[in-house]
Fold:
Amino acid sequence: MSYPEPQYLGETGEISSTLRAAGAEPDLTTGTGTRVHYLGTGGSTNGAFGLYRWEMGPKPGGAGAHFHRTMTESFYVLSGTVRLFTGETWVDGRPGDFLHVPEGGIHGFRNESGEPTSMLILFTPGAPREAYFEELAEISTSGRQLTPEEWTDLYLRHDQYMV
Structure:
């Protein structure tokens, strides 16, 4: 393995970093009270990655078993206990636990602990996951009911294949 081709060809570097303060308000709150912080979106990282802080409240919630064809997904537990599906079994992820899922890898996550929990979710490359998160939040807060066909359409538009 070697370093990729240079993306920056200047000689002196430039001031181009962005900082998101720890106390920033979440970018999205779902109907179950999950707070999502867009730390680095595909748009803000030129498609390199998408990084999100996912803060789940005590209500049960999360994603069932699924896979993606176009991106990897990784989870790093910050606090509490997050149920992580490895493709074979559900395990209790605790602070410091890390799960990496390559393209096509079956996975899922849930908070079933009855306590708040938080984790980082990393997608590579940086797909536009915000539209998916925002549509799910709108559905959960509005009480709108989708048919099985509408759920399938939503998932397929966002590279999510349920198992």
